[in-house]
Structures are given as structure tokens and as C-alpha cells.
């Protein structure tokens, strides 16, 4: 599969569907694996990394799940194309920063990707829409089992899978969910919720993982350690926490709807107006406004706009996607202009937010009589 084909066929996890997809955007399982008798990538010479890549890449490409997928060495990918893969959450930022001796194989549905020579020899991930860690695990576990039948993994009977970083030893598994939590942010409950998550040993990160900001009210929650718990136990724990966060977000949305309806309408309306009519939009501003638009769509305040449309826009306005579409490198100023052009074009058919009172007590028309009016 060519890179252009990869872009033309959006993954199903980008469609805004799945369990609790109004709050949980994606569920992802990542496995770290290494080969016996080979040095970890960080301790290898360039020649060793190239040799390992050349040995394992054909094996990965012939797996049934990866047939006719995207399969490329990083030396053949431009910086922009690698960054596009990061923005699509198909490879890590750290892997994209590397070149010689690194490669990635991605299935046609973009639900499975295998990074070769990241921090470990393999970083395999399965990704699904909504809260569906079990299916994501089934996807990547099937690939892992098939690989293990052909390759000799570094495994210890007492410790489990051996990895470059001690925090990944054991199952080598990280389970994470991407959560959209605008109402918890607006009601100023987000810090309390995230502190509670951290206290039970889970990590809270931003849009692109460790060290990144939670732009667009998007938060990643994942396990921090992989030793001492089985895969099933880890998945159950993450899903249980995610369910509680979903309930908290839903309650916060209900609170906004009934206690601060005008403020909610204002937030959604301002976001729509900015996205619909701006001629310059930076990344942070666009992400935060798209977050409010997604909230408005989910709460039926914006008609003709589903979350799938917003989720696709969240990708299309990313810096590397903008530059790839333009066919050249863009200055930050040019990216801001193109970002605004795209949002104006995509949203031109979306009607403005409903101009009615949320509690339906009366019309938002200022000329309409109030319930206490003495007019006959």
C-alpha cells in the first residue's frame, strides 16, 4: 500500500463510533517485544539495527493481518510523512525522530501498526474506536502470537518479556484510552478527577503521550507498570477507571446543561463562529474550538455536525497534514491560514448552533414575552 492510499482511506477509529465514543475517542493496546541475542536498539550500532530490520521486516510483512499494508523504511520517508504518522497515532514521536535501521508496517485498516527498532525491537499496537480495549488487545495479541511463532523473543520465566525500559518488563503491555473531557474542564473538576486517577497508579498524559499538553480537552489514561498483573487484569482496571471518568464527564455535561445553559451555548457558539469565519487559526486555538464544537454536536446543540466530522477535522488541521496537502513546507503563519481555510470549507454546510433556550421554557427571541409578563 502506498502512502497516498493510506491517507485516502481513513481508519475506522477515526469515524467517531464505538462504545462511549462521545467521551472515549480511542482505545489502544501497545506491546513491547525484543529478540533474544540482539542488543536493545539504544545499545545497538547502526549496522546492527539495519541487520535486525532486514531480518524481521519481511516476517512482519507476511503476517496475514499485515498483507498489502503500508510497509516502509524510515530512510525512504520524509520528515513530514513521518510526522503525519505521528499525528495519526500510528507511530510514536520518538520513533519518527529516528531514521536508519527503523521501519513501520501498518495494516490496511490502520488498526494495527508495528514499529521496528523503536525503544524496543518491536512496538506493536492495536487501536479501536470508543472504549474497546478488549478488541484492541485481541488484534495485537493475534499478531504477537504469529510473530512469536517465527522469532525468538527475549523472555524470562520469572520476569516475563524483557524490555529496554524496566517499567515495561513483564507483560510489556500498555493499555490506554483517549478521553474527550470538555465538561469536566469547564466545571473545573478535571484536576480532581485526574489526581484521583494518578493516585491509583495510572498515568495521565496529553494528546501525543508523555510530555505533551492536553490540547482540545483530550487526555490519555494508561497503566504505568507492566509487572505483577496479567493482561486481563490491566485491561479490566483501565476500563473500570475509564467507565468512572465517562460517568463523571456525562454528569458534568448534565450539570452544564441545567445549571449554566447560557454559558454552554456561549462556549459552543463562540467556537462555531471562530471556526466558521476565522481567516487565521493556530493549532491550539483550533483544537480547543473543535473540542467545543464536538461537545455541541454530542449535546444536540449543533445540528448537521456529527463527531466523525469533527474527528476528521482534528486530523486534517495538524501541521504535517497541512504541509502534505500543500505539497511543500509551510511557515507557521501559512499553516494558520490554511488551517482556517479548511475549517471554513468543511463547516460551511453546518448550520449555526440552535438559537433556542436549552430548557425549552421559552424562545430565545428577545421579543417573546417572558413567563412573568403581564401582557394579555
UniProtKB/TrEMBL annotation:
Residue positions of motif RDXXRA motif of the pArg binding pocket involved in allosteric regulation: 335-340
Gene Ontology MF terms: ATP binding; creatine kinase activity; protein arginine kinase activity
EC number(s) given by UniProt: 2.7.14.1
Ways its activity is controlled: Appears to be allosterically activated by the binding of pArg-containing polypeptides to the pArg-binding pocket localized in the C-terminal domain of McsB.
Residue span, Phosphagen kinase C-terminal domain: 23-252
Region ranges (Disordered): 351-376
GO cellular component entries: extracellular space
Gene3D superfamilies: Glutamine synthetase/guanido kinase, catalytic domain
Signal sequence segment: none
Reactions catalysed according to its record: L-arginyl-[protein] + ATP = N(omega)-phospho-L-arginyl-[protein] + ADP + H(+)
SUPFAM superfamilies: Glutamine synthetase/guanido kinase
Compositionally biased residues, Low complexity: 363-376
Keywords: Allosteric enzyme, ATP-binding, Kinase, Nucleotide-binding, Transferase
Pfam family, one: ATP-gua_Ptrans
GO biological process: one example: phosphocreatine biosynthetic process
Task of the protein: Catalyzes the specific phosphorylation of arginine residues in proteins.
This protein's name: Protein-arginine kinase
Biological source species: Roseimicrobium gellanilyticum
Gene giving rise to this polypeptide: mcsB
Amino acid at each position: 500500500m502506498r502512502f497516498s492510499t493510506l491517507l485516502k482511506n481513513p481508519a475506522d477509529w477515526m469515524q467517531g463510533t464505538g462504545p462511549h465514543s462521545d467521551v472515549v475517542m480511542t482505545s489502544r493496546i501497545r506491546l513491547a517485544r525484543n529478540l533474544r541475542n540482539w542488543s536493545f536498539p539504544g545499545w545497538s550500532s547502526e549496522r546492527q539495527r539495519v541487520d535486525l530490520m532486514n531480518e524481521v521486516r519481511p516476517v512482519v510483512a507476511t503476517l496475514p493481518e499485515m498483507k498489502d499494508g503500508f510497509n516502509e523504511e524510515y530512510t525512504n520517508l520524509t520528515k513530514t510523512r513521518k510526522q503525519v504518522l505521528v499525528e495519526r497515532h500510528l507511530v510514536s514521536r520518538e520513533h519518527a525522530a529516528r531514521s536508519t535501521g527503523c521501519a513501520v508496517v501498518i495494516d490496511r485498516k490502520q488498526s494495527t501498526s508495528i514499529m521496528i527498532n523503536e525503544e524496543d525491537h518491536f512496538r506493536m499496537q492495536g487501536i479501536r474506536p470508543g472504549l474497546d480495549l478488549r478488541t484492541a488487545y485481541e488484534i495485537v495479541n493475534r499478531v504477537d502470537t504469529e510473530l512469536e511463532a517465527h522469532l525468538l523473543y527475549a523472555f524470562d520465566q520469572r520476569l516475563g518479556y524483557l524490555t529496554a525500559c524496566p517499567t515495561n518488563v513483564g507483560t510489556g503491555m500498555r493499555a490506554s484510552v483517549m478521553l474527550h473531557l470538555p465538561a469536566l474542564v469547564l466545571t473545573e473538576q478535571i484536576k480532581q478527577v485526574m489526581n484521583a486517577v494518578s493516585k491509583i497508579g495510572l498515568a495521565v498524559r496529553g494528546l501525543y503521550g508523555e510530555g505533551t499538553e492536553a490540547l482540545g480537552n483530550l487526555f490519555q489514561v494508561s497503566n504505568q507498570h507492566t509487572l505483577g498483573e496479567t493482561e486481563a487484569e490491566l485491561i479490566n482496571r483501565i476500563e473500570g477507571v475509564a467507565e468512572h471518568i465517562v460517568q463523571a464527564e456525562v454528569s458534568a455535561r448534565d450539570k452544564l446543561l441545567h445549571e449554566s445553559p447560557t454559558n454552554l451555548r456561549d462556549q459552543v457558539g463562540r467556537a462555531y463562529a471562530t471556526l466558521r469565519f476565522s481567516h487565521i487559526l493556530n493549532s491550539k486555538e483550533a483544537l480547543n474550538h473543535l473540542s467545543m464544537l464536538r461537545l455541541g454536536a454530542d449535546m444536540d446543540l449543533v445540528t448537521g455536525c456529527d463527531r466523525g466530522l469533527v474527528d476528521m477535522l482534528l486530523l486534517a488541521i495538524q501541521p504535517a497534514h497541512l504541509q502534505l496537502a500543500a505539497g511543500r513546507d509551510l511557515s507557521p503563519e501559512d499553516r494558520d491560514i490554511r488551517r482556517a481555510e479548511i475549517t471554513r470549507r468543511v463547516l460551511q454546510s453546518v448550520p449555526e448552533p440552535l438559537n433556542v433556550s436549552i430548557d425549552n421554557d421559552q424562545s430565545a427571541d428577545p421579543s417573546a414575552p417572558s413567563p412573568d409578563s403581564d401582557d394579555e
